[in-house]
Each structure stands twice: as C-alpha cells, then as structure tokens.
Amino acid sequence: AQSVAQPEDQVNVAEGNPLTVKCTYSVSGNPYLFWYVQYPNRGLQFLLKYITGDNLVKGSYGFEAEFNKSQTSFHLKKPSALVSDSALYFCAVRAYNNNDMRFGAGTRLTVKP
Amino acid sequence: GAGVSQSPRYKVAKRGQDVALRCDPISGHVSLFWYQQALGQGPEFLTYFQNEAQLDKSGLPSDRFFAERPEGSVSTLKIQRTQQEDSAVYLCASSTSSGRAEEQFFGPGTRLTVL
C-alpha cells in the first residue's frame, strides 16, 4: 500500500527566508510524486511533480523539490519565502501501477512579514 | 480557459436524504477522479473514470456511494441515505490522459453538511 507522511502540521517562516516543507512516502516500485497547494475556498493547484530523472524538480512560483530515494523523501523548498506563499500544502504519491493518488494530511505554511 | 467546475458549492442535507454532486471536467480530459476531504485531512481517493468507464471504485466507502460518467465528460457522485459521517468536501479532478504520471486539475469542491 502507498502512503505519505507530512510530519509537520505547521511551518512558520519569515519573509525572505528559505522554506522547507517535509514529505516522506512509502510505495511499492517507482513512485510518482506531486506537490499541490490549496488556498482558502479554492481547489488544489498543482505545483510540481517527480517522475524520473533529475532528483531536483523545479515547479511553479519558484518552488522546487528534491527526490531522495534512499530516504524516501520529497521535500518542498523555496529559497526566499513570500507572504503570498502562505497556504496549505499537500504532498501526494501515486504508484506506477495504481489508479489512486494518496495524499498527506497537509502542512500549513505561514510566512510572516 | 475554463477549469474544473463543481456544483453545488455547498449542500446541506438532512440525514437520510439522497444527494447528487456534479463535476464538469476540463473539456477533452480523459481521466476523472473523485476525492473526499474531511476537515483537517488530505483528500482521499474515491473513484476513477477513464472516459465513460469506471475503472476503479475501490475508495467508495459504502454501497450508498455511486458515481457515473455516462458520456465521458460530466460526472455525478450520488450519495444515498446520507449519514453524518458523509459530511466532507467532495473534490473532483481531471487529467489529460490516462497516464499515471499526469498531474490532476482540481475543482473547488462541494462542501456537504449532513445534519
């Protein structure tokens, strides 16, 4: 069975500082990994994904994520946080042979001016 | 262009009532997914359509839940004899192809409250 863990319910950073939102996963075989962001009263928006190849994936709004197979992690990062990055972030995994996508419980990111 | 739309956005039902939730995916998208998102949790997979074929309904929590996509575009999730534990946000998502590496585009969700 596939699963995702987001160990932090809440992450607080100051504007301009780097941010990291952590994600670890468990899946049989090669994983497809995704990050989504959810703003209030809006649907989830796709940020980036890892399929294969380069372990560092770049996505929307300056976000990037690093795939680490040995640590089964896919942490989301941004070099310089903006107040507008404040939102709920979800990590998700999908096995190559599975229809369902499994989401973590989410991490609420707050960026303070 | 138009994204995924869902209606109604909010639905209040009395326990025991039947409800129907509608999803309009992005035009031309082959795959359609339904998810249930409880308060403070991530979305949980309910069911998957490829065109009009329901290929996976392993996430449907009971036989009170039924989904259809008869013409391979609009989909309806129906919940019969609603219970309080059905209260959640129901999300619909679509993707361009059947590939499992494809990102999904989500609608704004329908918030169902069962009294």
* Cα separation of the termini of chain A: 41 Å
| Helical content class of chain B | under 10%
Q: Tell me about the largest β-sheet of chain B.
A: 7 strands, mixed
User: Uncertain regions of chain B: pLDDT < 50 for 5+ in a row?
Assistant: none
SSE ordering of chain B? EEEEEEEEEEE
User: Roughly what is the average pLDDT of chain A, rounded to an integer?
Assistant: 94
- What's the total number of strands of chain A? 12
- Class derived from helix and strand content of chain B: mainly beta
Q: SS-based structural class of chain A?
A: mainly beta
Largest sheet of chain A: 6 strands, mixed
The greatest interface here is: A-B, 27 and 25 residues
Alpha carbon gyration radius of chain B: 13 Å
Helix content of chain A: under 10%
Q: What is the 3D form of chain B?
A: globular
Strand fraction of chain B equals: over 45%
Low-confidence stretches of chain A: none
* Helical stretch tally of chain A: 0
Oligomeric form: heterodimer
- Beta-strand segment tally of chain B: 11
Describe the global form of chain A.
globular
